[in-house]
Amino acid sequence: VTGGENGVEMRKAVLTAPLSLDGQSGADYRAPNVVQRVLSLFKNVLPGSDLTHFQATLTPFLFHLFTRTRLSPLFNIPKSQLQCFGESVYCVQSDMLSKCANADTPLDRFTSVVAWSISISRPVIFGVAPYNPVLGETHHVSRGSFNVLLEQISHHPPVSALHATDESKNIELIWCQRPVPKFHGTGVEVEVHGKKELKLLTHVETYVMDSPKLFIRFVPVPGADWIGNVRIRCEETGIEAELCYRTSSFLGFGGNQRSVKGRIFLSSSPKKTIYEINGHWDRTVSMKDTSTGKVTVIYNANAVISNLKTPVVGDPEGVWSTESTVVWSEVSQGILSKNWDKARIAKKIVEEKERELLRERQSKGEAWVPKHFFVPNTKEGGWECSPIHKWVPPAPIVVPI
């Protein structure tokens, strides 16, 4: 509980453990029995079965689950999507961004950036989803000298913006993210639109990259994995990478689950591969020098994203009222205590407040303006954002090191 004295507003922040490699985190994220009952529907579906009745029964559930529109708290994990977005950046065991900045050569820095980009792929729990962030919601966390600030800059469509800086190491990360789901016969493919830039300011290098897609498979084996192609490029050095994320076949079987393959090459000579990339993003990823045949492990998921520590409130009076862990605190408490009536009522209050604020703006003819990001009007072909401030200040919520 923050504040409460000398007229300071009372605010409650509920912080929960980050997701682990297996997509769980103790009892906090175990799917409730109702999810297990829904998943049991899949057991009776065999290849070639008539899915007409099955799809008619499940479509409303799937729509709400993956669009997170008025989703029952039974199907929520106790944290906002904004937090999950931020955790992929600040919840790590080893400081991979420092390795990017400290590497001696452009090629070494590039391979370190490739490894970092793989590290932000995190497991997804099938059957439950985080809260859909409200407009203007923020999440502000520090890990050492690395400060991270996120803001929900649009609600329809849902767009999240991230700005992270480490002033002591001259590192800046700007990332705008807009998920766009597309329904298919056996699942949902979520394209993650938006621009992602990692800047190593000391070296005057900017690394531009996109994100893999999230594929959510319904039948016959339910699951969720990252798939698709990712391109990473640095214009200043002329080095590029192409990565391909793969999962098992559409039936849910096969040996390519969570694999990532690709190559690193010079843009001036795209046919000449410098390194071949191969491995699994939830295990280890190696690179092979095509000239010498030497193989080096560049990423070990167990060393980077296992045994993650839960953030704590370091400065109670510095926590904003828009902070995710404050906005959804009552809902999260209800979920954690399995008090579903409390969770449902608290969630309705959050959603009704957002709708009321929208009606007020519409009645006044006011447009929403983000507090921490400048958003250009040209949104065709993807969203971009620019942080208003050069450096992100230290946050009231910190990750223990």
TrEMBL record:
Pfam families: Oxysterol_BP (PF01237)
Record key words, sorted: Lipid transport, Lipid-binding, Transport
Entry annotated with the keyword Transport: yes
InterPro entries reported in the protein's UniProt record: OSBP_sf (IPR037239), Oxysterol-bd (IPR000648), Oxysterol-bd_CS (IPR018494)
GO biological process: lipid transport
Highest taxon of source: Eukaryota
GO molecular function terms listed in the Swiss-Prot or TrEMBL record: sterol binding
Cellular component GO terms, alphabetical: cytosol; membrane
Matches recorded under PROSITE patterns: OSBP
Record family assignment: Belongs to the OSBP family.
Function: May be involved in the transport of sterols.
Protein name: Oxysterol-binding protein
Organism: Dillenia turbinata
